Every structure is written in C-alpha cells, then in structure tokens.
C-alpha cells in the first residue's frame, strides 16, 4: 500500500523504537521491524531485551581494534576489510543496523571516548570511516556513523551545549562526516546528545536539513542517540527520523497532537516515514543465512583479520641502538645487517636467542577495548606473556606483575620485578604498561594525562638496573611519558582487539614490520593542549574557544614542542621521498625503501594557505596513502586534489570558496618531517575545475590548472579577530573576543545562576538543589559510582548515565512509563517541592497509562 494511506497515528508510531534495540514495523504497509546494535569495532548483539550500556550479556563476536587504533594504520582498504567482517557478523547475528563508526574529532586527549574516534584530523577520520562503512554495507547491513556532531566531552554529554563558530564547525568538525557521506553513502547516521549553539542535534535543522541532506545529498535515516531526543515534533521538522530507544507512545501522542494543531503537516511525517521504509527495505534479508550464532570457521577467519588490522596499526615510537655482545645482541636494523662481536644495534626486533623478562599486569591480563556501549564479548582472548612463550627462538626468563592494575602502591611488586630484570638470565626487559578499564570509558572523561604513579615508579626502577627496557604501551589515547628518554624502545599498541597480543609479539620479534603512524598529536604535558584550561566544561555551555586550532593545527602554528607529532611512526625499514612535482591533477613523488626489509610508510600531503588570505593553521593535511615497498623498491605516488584541498568556509557569503593565489604543497611521513615542497598558483579556473570534478567523482582525482610558481611562500597574515590563536594564547581568549567569532551564529544561552533546575539540566547538577530529596539522589549516585570504580576497577556505567542524564530523557528511556508531564513533576522535586512533585508524578502516571492504552488500541485496530 502507499505509505500516505497510513493513518496519522500509524505514521507517528513508525518514528520511535519498539524496544531497546528494535524499530516498530507496520505489517499493513509492508514495513518490517529492524534491529540495531552497537558495533564500532564489534557486534554487541545483546540477549533478551538488553541495555544500551554494555552491562547485559551479549552474544560472542569478534572484538576488532578500536577506531583510534585502526586509524593509526592510515589504510582505508584495511578498514574496509574489517568492515566486511563486521557486516558479515552483524548479518549472521540478525542485526540490520550497526551503530558505528564513531567519527568525532579528538578535540582534547582527556575525552573518555577518544578510543572510539579516529583522529584529530577530518581527512583521516573521513577516509578511514568511509572504508569501514563500505565494508559493512557490502553485506546489506546499514552502517550508522556517529555522533553527529560536535560531541567532544562525556561530562554532561546529554546536557551540554557546544558553542562554536560556523567556520570551525564546517572546516573541522563536519568535514569528516561530509567525506563519509559523499564517498561511502551510509544508509543511516546517528545524531549526538548535545546542543549545537543552543539547538539539540536531533532537532537542528541547520545540521540535519540544510547541511546533511541538502548540501551533502544524504537520503537515509537519522536516528537519535539513545535517549538523545528532546522534542519529537521539532525533530521531525528538522530532519530527525527515528527516536530511540523507546519512548512508548508518548512521542506518538505528541506528533498526532501537533498535526491536529497544524504545527506539523502529514507531509512532514511522510518524509520521515519514507526514510524508515527505505532502511527497512535496504536491510531486509528474510532470515536468509542468519542463525544468530557465528560458526567456528567465521570465528577463526575473523580472528585472523583482527590480527592483521592490529599488525597494520601498531606504532613503533622509539627504537634506539644498544651495545651488547654475541647471543645477547638484539635484532639489528637490516639496512646495516647484524655483525658479530660487540656492536650497537636497534633493540627491536628482538634477536633469536634473546632472554626476555616480562613485567606488567597488562601482559598477563590483557586490556584490548574500552568500557561502555562498545564493549564486546570476544570470541577469543590472547595475552602477551602467553604469545611470547609461544614465540620461536625467544626465551621468557620470567614474569612479574610489577604494579597493581588500578594504581595502588605496592613496593614489593616493583622489587620483585627489579630482581627479575637484574638476573643474569635476563637480556632485555619487556614492560607492558598503560591505562586501566576505568580510565577510558563512555560517560567519563579522564582526569589526567598521566600514567599511574605505580607504573612510572616501576619503569624508573627497571631502567636503573642497566638492562635495556622495551615498553609496550596499552592505551586508547595519549599519555605523558616522563621516562621516554630513558627506555630503549617503545611500541604503542593502542586498544588492539582480541588478537592484539599476537600482533604485538609478531612486531616485537620481527615477523611483522611496524607501519602504524599516529593520527593524533601527543603533547609533552597536558598543559600544552590548547583547550586544557577549560576542558571538560562542567556548566551547560562548552565554548570552542580554540576555533580550528586543534591538535597539530595548533602545535604547528603556535610552534609548541610535542612528544610525538601528528603522523609520526617508525619502522624497521628506512624510506626516502624524492622528485615532487605538481601537475594539473595533483602531486606526484617517488618513495624508496632504502633497506633490506620489506615495509610500508605513510605518505602525507599538507597544504599552506594563500599568503595574505583567510586566517588558517600553518599546515593542513589534504591527502595520504599507505605505501608498501619491497626491499630497495621505489614507487611513484600520485595524490590528487579534490574539493577539500584548497577550500575554506566564507562565513559572510555562507558558502565554501577556493581562494586564488599561491599555495605551498609539502610531502613527507609526518607533519614535522616534510622533505618535499613545491609552490603552485591556484587560479579561478583551478577552483572551477576542482569544484566540477569533485561533483563528478569521489575517488579524489580531479582536474586542475596549476602553474609553477617561483616566489617563496609568504606566511599567512593573521585575521586581527583571531590573532590570539596564531601566538598560541588560545587559553586566554575572552568571552567578548569569542563572541566576535560567533557573530550572528551565536544563539546559545547560558545556564541561569538562579539555582532553578529545568528538564534539560543533568541530575548531577541536583547536588546543589535546595531540596533534600533531589540533593540526596545526586549525592548517593555520585558516591556509588566512585565506590564501584574503586572496588571493581570498572566504571559504574548505569550511575554515570543517570548522573549525566537530564530528566527529559526519562520519557525517552522508559518505554512509555514516564511522559513529559511526569518529567515536569520530577523537575518540581529537583527544585525543592518534593511533596507537590511526587503527587503530580503519581497522578501523571495514571493519566499516561490511560493515554497509552488508547494509542495501542487505535494501532491494533489497523492491523
């Protein structure tokens, strides 16, 4: 039947969930219900009704490396291979829509969910996500990139307002999503919890209609984050399709009433219903090949894929030469070969015959994923100690725990580790250290960039033995490394999935040549981060005062020294870049492997802005490619210019523009190592050709009209309104100065200081309530979460969710048990009117139940 023939109530019912993970279907219209599941790096198909925080039991599935780790491969083809495996498992586990990948820009290293996000740079995030999306959807399963958009902190995540200027929004925080939408065509997208300049993302017409649908051509479903919808009516108007998980029939009643008042038209509903029908049709398999369980063959095959992804993503951060003799001589760089006798050679890869002392709780009890809704019930599990014991030609001289996993002081553990390291039976010490489960989690931002003191003390003590120390670092985001100069080598494995241990050992022993490069800058200390002074924001308004100067865009422009620059990564091979040339489609250059060892490097192309043109960072990444080379092999690499290469957003004209003038293009293997550079002139014809070609293709190869230019590139002139950024003083931009940047786009509103709470203030803020009951609820939840984290080493996700949740989410998360009138009653309690609020709540409960029964009866009459 034609969808327009459905009743208003039937249409409204299709726009909210039926349960925690299922949409509503309509048999009369031939629209089946579809199943959604978390899945950024594994399918979390929960048993029974489930929950959205990863607390309930879920079916076994492959745990692949997290997005922050996969990104370090700089290999969209590898991400696509992982996506195909993810989509296959989603299909087999009866999942229609996989909620991932996470694509938010890493604004600050303390964001608790950074392990789920790709990069501080939108080109990397967009291209890596595109690969994953293509892979997932090749199985007929919808990918659902998230969280759209400007979602940068976990504190107050459901009650935070991201205040941002339009140019920063467009150029930095939306570009990754734009690349993914244009190049991979996802069938769904998830809106974020937060407001953007005063308007919730799920009802932000500027975001969902003007940009996502009209500009980028998105034709799929926009689903709210779980409990992230505010007004169902405003969402339908703005372009929000599906409200999840299940508000019961509360939203249905609101939509029907809005149509009756003339506030909403049936045509508005028809647009959203058509999007539901489309995703249901695209992902409908009729149960073919789906048995809700993974076969042994699939489990084994996908474990191998997870290992290959981890191997391609591991980053070698340091590998110094140490002087040893004979059998104790570590593996040497093959470019020089291994000499007999007393020689100095890189400590990695470990040489056959090496006797290795393994130290660290994380070596025996692995941590390979983060906490929260993405947590996977892995099909297999490995640990580094076991894999080293299984490695040929390597002897494990012993194992010591070294530290309490969750940071407690225990000097005896350090002394035992030092005794093992000092033993004559030990040639080298492998220290496996990192962050624990409670450090990186959905719902909780990190409090520090430091490693636990117990681990720092351990490394210092191990170094003092005089034995070479190799550090394996397990973490989903940067940490401070005060011991970096003292250790012989360091390998960053990130959160590398269920096969990460074997991948790490294969790199340590030389079976795999490391080729990962960092996709975020590692500052020397947290105070160097541009947003350090005001992150996370405990109040409602989170002002993005640093503008586009995030990550390397800030450090390179302000000339702030860093521990590891963006794009950094070492190898057991060595590479040379040469022969850069600009032509009418992009740049080409040669890459040569100068060593005897096959390996891969990440070629990166950066662009400087037009001299005297719009204010912008000193350098911006505009292209990259993973280049694999055999021993002494050379390849010519071409990187094309596309719609993203030279553009900037003109706020006054409210459109993208390509500035004409001289540009400098630089190429190398990280932002601080760019040996090749060329100058070119972008003409008006160039701009038109790039725009036309970008509209006609998505492969990054476009036509252009670049002319060679001799003059030396001049520094970009500072826009006087943004001069603060160019001298690195972003921490001191005043409210008035920031308001100038926002201009007419600033429509956010500051939280009142009156102490009066509303339906959009988080329950954590009740700790300052005048009402005893509300204040007690907030204090009990806060205390419970802290005690659980201390006792178990795991965050209390339920308590965190409730603390961050505003009362309005109660009517979105309770399957219709609570409606908006009952929320208003809860707010009365928060404002100190406990008896009045409780009375209103009880009366509202019975009214709500009666109204829900009427809607259910009406819907049943149409069956």
How does this model look, in words?
By secondary structure, the chain is of the alpha/beta class. Strand 20 (575-582) and strand 21 (586-593) form a beta hairpin. The protein contains 24 helices and 29 strands. Helix 10 crosses helix 15 (500-508), helix 12 (384-390) packs across helix 15 (500-508) and helix 23 packs antiparallel against helix 24 (834-861). One of its GO terms (molecular function) is beta-glucosidase activity. InterPro entries: Cellulose_deg_GH3, Fn3-like, GH, Glyco_hydro_3_AS, Glyco_hydro_3_C, Glyco_hydro_3_C_sf, Glyco_hydro_3_N, Glyco_hydro_3_N_sf. Pfam families: Fn3-like, Glyco_hydro_3, Glyco_hydro_3_C. Belongs to the glycosyl hydrolase 3 family.
Q: How would you describe this structure in keywords?
A:
Rossmann fold, GH, Glyco_hydro_3_C, Immunoglobulin-like, glycosidase, alpha/beta, carbohydrate metabolism, EC 3.2.1.21, 863 residues, TIM Barrel, 6-stranded mixed beta sheet, 5-stranded antiparallel beta sheet
| Poorly predicted residue ranges | 325-341, 697-733, 743-753
What is the alpha-carbon Rg in Å?
A: 28 Å
Q: How many domains, in number, for the residues?
A: 4
Reported by name, the CATH topology of the largest domain is: Rossmann fold
How many H/I helices?
A: 24
**Largest β-sheet summary:** 6 strands, mixed
Query: Could you state the CATH homologous superfamily of the largest domain?
Result: Glycoside hydrolase family 3 C-terminal domain
Specify the CATH architecture of the largest domain: 3-Layer(aba) Sandwich
**Order of the strands making up the biggest sheet:** 9-16-15-14-12-13
Mean pLDDT: 87
Number of strands: 29
Shape: globular
Strand proportion: 15-25%
Q: What structural class is derived from the secondary structure elements?
A: alpha/beta
Q: Which percent range fits the helix content?
A: 25-40%
């Amino acid at each position: 039947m034609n969808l327009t023939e459905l009743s208003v109530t039937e249409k409204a019912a299709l726009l909210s969930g039926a349960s925690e993970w299922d949409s509503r279907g309509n048999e009369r219209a031939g629209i089946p219900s579809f199943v959604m599941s978390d899945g950024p790096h594994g399918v979390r198909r929960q048993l029974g009704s489930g929950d959205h925080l990863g607390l309930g039991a879920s079916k076994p599935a492959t745990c692949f490396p997290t997005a922050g780790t996969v990104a370090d491969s700089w290999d969209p083809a590898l991400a696509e291979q992982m996506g195909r495996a993810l989509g296959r498992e989603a299909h087999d586990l009866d999942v229609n829509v996989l909620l991932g990948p996470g694509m938010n820009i890493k604004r600050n290293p303390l964001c608790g969910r950074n392990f789920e996000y790709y990069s501080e740079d939108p080109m990397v995030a967009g291209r890596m996500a595109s690969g994953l999306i293509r892979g997932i959807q090749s199985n007929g399963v919808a990918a659902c990139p998230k969280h759209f958009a400007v979602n940068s902190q976990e504190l107050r995540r459901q009650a935070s307002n991201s205040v941002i200027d339009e140019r920063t929004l467009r150029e930095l925080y939306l570009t990754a999503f734009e690349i993914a939408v244009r190049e991979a065509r996802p069938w769904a997208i998830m809106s974020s919890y937060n407001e953007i300049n005063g308007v919730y993302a799920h009802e932000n017409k500027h975001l969902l209609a003007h940009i996502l649908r009209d500009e980028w051509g998105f034709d799929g479903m926009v689903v709210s984050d779980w409990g992230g919808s505010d007004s169902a009516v405003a969402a339908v108007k703005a372009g929000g399709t599906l409200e999840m998980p299940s508000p019961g029939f509360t939203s249905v009643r609101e939509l029907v009433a809005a149509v009756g008042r003339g506030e909403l038209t049936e045509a508005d509903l028809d647009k959203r219903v058509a999007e539901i029908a489309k995703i249901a049709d695209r992902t409908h398999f009729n149960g073919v090949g789906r048995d809700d369980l993974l076969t042994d063959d699939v489990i084994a095959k996908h474990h191998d894929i997870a290992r290959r992804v981890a191997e391609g993503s591991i980053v070698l951060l340091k590998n110094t030469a140490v002087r040893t003799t004979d059998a104790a001589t570590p593996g040497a760089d093959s470019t020089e070969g291994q000499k007999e006798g007393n020689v100095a050679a890189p400590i990695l890869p470990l040489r056959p015959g090496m006797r290795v002392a393994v130290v660290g709780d994380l070596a025996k009890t692995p941590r390979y994923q983060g906490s929260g809704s993405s947590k996977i019930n892995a099909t297999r599990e490995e640990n580094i100690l076991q894999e080293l014991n299984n490695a040929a030609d390597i002897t494990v001289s012993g194992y010591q725990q070294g530290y309490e996993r969750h940071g407690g002081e225990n000097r005896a553990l350090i002394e035992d580790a030092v005794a093992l390291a000092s033993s004559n039976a030990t040639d080298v010490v492998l220290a496996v250290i990192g962050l624990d489960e409670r450090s990186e989690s959905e719902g909780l931002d990190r409090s520090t960039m430091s490693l636990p003191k117990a681990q720092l003390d351990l490394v210092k003590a191990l170094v003092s033995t005089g034995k070479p120390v190799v550090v394996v670092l397990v973490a989903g985001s940067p940490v401070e490394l005060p011991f970096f100069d003292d250790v012989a080598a360091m390998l960053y494995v990130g959160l590398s999935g269920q096969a990460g241990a074997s991948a790490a050992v294969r790199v340590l022993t030389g079976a795999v040549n490391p080729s990962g490069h960092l996709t975020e800058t590692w500052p020397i200390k947290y105070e160097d981060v541009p947003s350090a002074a005001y992150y996370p924001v405990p109040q409602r308004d989170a002002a993005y005062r640093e503008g586009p100067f995030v990550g390397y865009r800030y450090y390179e422009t302000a000339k702030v020294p860093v521990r590891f620059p963006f794009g950094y990564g070492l190898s057991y091979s060595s590479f040379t870049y040469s022969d850069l040339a600009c032509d009418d489609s992009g740049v080409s250059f040669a890459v040569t492997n100068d060593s005897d060892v096959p390996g891969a490097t990440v070629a990166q192309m950066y662009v400087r802005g037009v001299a005297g043109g719009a204010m912008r960072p000193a350098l911006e990444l505009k292209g990259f490619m993973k280049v694999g080379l055999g021993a002494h092999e050379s390849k010519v690499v071409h990187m094309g210019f596309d719609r993203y290469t030279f553009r900037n957003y003109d706020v006054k004209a409210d459109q993208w523009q390509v500035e004409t003038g001289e540009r400098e293009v630089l190429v190398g293997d990280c932002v601080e190592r760019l040996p090749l550079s060329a100058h070119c002139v972008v003409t008006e014809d160039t701009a038109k050709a790039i725009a036309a070609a970008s509209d006609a293709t998505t492969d990054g190869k476009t036509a252009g009209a670049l002319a060679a230019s001799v003059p030396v590139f001049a520094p970009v002139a500072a826009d006087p309104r943004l001069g603060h950024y160019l001298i690195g003083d972003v921490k001191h931009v005043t409210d008035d100065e920031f308001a100038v940047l926002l201009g007419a786009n600033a429509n956010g509103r500051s939280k009142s200081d009156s102490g009066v709470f509303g339906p959009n203030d988080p329950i954590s803020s009740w700790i300052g309530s005048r009402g005893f009951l509300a204040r007690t609820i907030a204090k009990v939840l806060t205390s419970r979460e802290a005690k659980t984290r201390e006792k178990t080493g795991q965050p209390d996700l339920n308590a965190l969710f409730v603390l961050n949740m505003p009362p309005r989410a109660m009517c979105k998360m309770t399957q219709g048990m609570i409606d908006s009138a009952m929320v208003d009653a809860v707010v009365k309690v928060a404002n100190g009117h406990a008896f009045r609020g409780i009375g209103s709540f009880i009366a509202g409960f019975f009214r709500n139940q009666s109204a829900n029964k009427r809607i259910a009866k009406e819907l049943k009459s149409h069956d």
